[in-house]
Amino acid sequence: MGKIIFYEDRNFQGRNYECSSECTDLHSHFNRCNSIRVDSGDWMVYERSNYMGYQYFLRKGDYPDYQRWMGFNDCVRSCRMIPANQGSHKMSIYERTEFGGQTMELTEDCPSLYERFHFNDIHSCKVMDGHWIFYEHPHYRGRQYLMRPGEYRRFHEWGSMSPRVGSIKRIAM
Length: 173
Known about the structure:
Helices cover 3% and strands 49% of the residues. The chain is mainly beta. The protein folds into two domains: 3-82, Sandwich (Gamma-B Crystallin, domain 1), CATH 2.60.20.10; 90-171, Crystallins (Gamma-B Crystallin, domain 1, Sandwich), CATH 2.60.20.10. A four-stranded antiparallel sheet has the order 2-1-3-6, with no helix packed on it. The mean pLDDT is 95. It comes from Austrofundulus limnaeus (Annual killifish).
């Protein structure tokens, strides 16, 4: 069971809210979020309600201000715990929508999509095993997108405004 605590002010001050499961709308619990403490579990926090907007992957640890989790602002409106996975990871990525065009299979992290496959755009994907994170830029930088098991026929289905993916990382214990 995971536990995350959101604080309105920096350095774990001010009004706080403790959460141990996913929550689609945190707005009623706090107005802003300037620090977070993750006591256990892996979490994805979202800028907007219903798992929309900027996404931030957080592991156990202290985040005394929103810049520490690479936040663009102090707005956190939803969160979800990511189930622990000690097993295998498997994903297929496609160069076209609806699983069309060239396909590549991943079972390991990919620090630079371009260096490995000579392209940067993923238009659709199938996650067969495990949870993954797409990063906007190489070497796990930029905007993040949680990829849960399932099918994504178009890039906007994982919350992106663009098919650009620079790197891909497994979420593993």
